[in-house]
Specification:
One of its GO terms (molecular function) is oxidoreductase activity. By secondary structure, the protein is α/β, with parallel strands linked by helices. Helices cover about 30% and strands about 20% of the residues. A hairpin with a 3-residue loop joins β7 and β8 (about 105). α1 packs parallel to α2 (about 60-75) and α1 packs parallel to α4 (about 160-180). The chain binds flavin-adenine dinucleotide (FAD). Flavin-adenine dinucleotide binds near residues 50, 114, 116, 150 and 163.
């Protein structure tokens, strides 16, 4: 579970609350970063039924999203459903994010808007030759502190499990940056017993 080495006031804004965005938010909130998600609920998951998500036999996409939303809410994510982000800009202290309802500041931004790459373009992120946002395995863009995940970083080959992995990779890189050393979010059976009071098979 989260330790006590995380500074109190580090903030992350995640734009897009599909599998990629909620995965990033889960990891950052769980590990003590102030995390806000803006989402307009147009995730492709509402059209999907998953048979290919490892560890889950069969689940409707909307049902999957309901569980994911509950999971991030339980870890304290400020999930602003149906609040669209209209602009993101670099500011003196990090990033300023404008929505239909207000303006917010963050130290890190995770872009998770599906195949829509407009905000990455506006921020000046480098693009690859195939018009995807250019990132490495840590999902950081050419703009330091801005991460791109999910469909925007691949021309096709779009799958929920891949988006969830992208979000996790972005979040872990943010946590490593904040903590100043490589970070693992590893829990053990005793953590589950402590949190849920349940016996967990070893
Ligand atoms: C018909 C269909 C069937 C599919 N079946 C499967 C399947 O069986 N298995 C599988 O693994 N995958 C399947 N997929 C693909 C899967 O749904 C996607 O890979 C996955 O949803 C991508 O997740 P994401 O988080 O990258 O983007 P998305 O799920 O598209 O989420 C992006 C979110 O960002 C929000 N957003 C966008 N712009 C803004 C903004 N400016 N401000 C705030 N919010 C914003 C959107 O409203 C949306 O909720 C299917 C897709 C379709 C269309």
């Amino acid at each position: 579970m989260s330790d006590e080495t995380t500074p109190d006031d580090v903030s992350v804004i995640v734009i897009g609350g599909g599998p990629a965005g909620l995965s990033a938010a889960l990891f950052t909130a769980k590990n003590g970063l102030e995390t806000t998600v803006f989402d307009t609920d147009e995730t492709w998951m509402h059209k999907a039924h998953l048979f290919n998500y490892l560890g889950i036999g069969s689940v409707g996409g909307s049902e999957f999203m309901a569980t994911a939303r509950q999971q991030v809410d339980d870890f304290g994510v400020d999930r602003r459903q149906d609040e669209a982000v209209t602009a993101v800009n670099e500011s003196d202290d990090g990033f300023s994010v404008e929505t239909e309802d207000g303006e917010y500041e963050a130290d890190f931004v995770v872009l998770a808007t599906g195949a829509n790459r407009d905000l990455a373009d506006d921020l000046g992120c480098a693009f690859a030759d195939d018009d995807t946002v250019d990132v490495g395995v840590d999902m950081e863009t050419s703009v330091e502190g801005v991460y791109a995940t999910g469909a925007m970083v691949r021309p096709e080959e779009w799958q929920a499990a891949i988006s969830v992995g992208d979000g996790a990779a972005a979040a872990l890189n943010i946590l490593s940056t904040v903590k100043g050393e490589h970070y693992h979010d590893f829990d053990v059976p005793a953590d589950a017993e402590r949190v849920f009071g349940e016996h967990v098979a070893e």
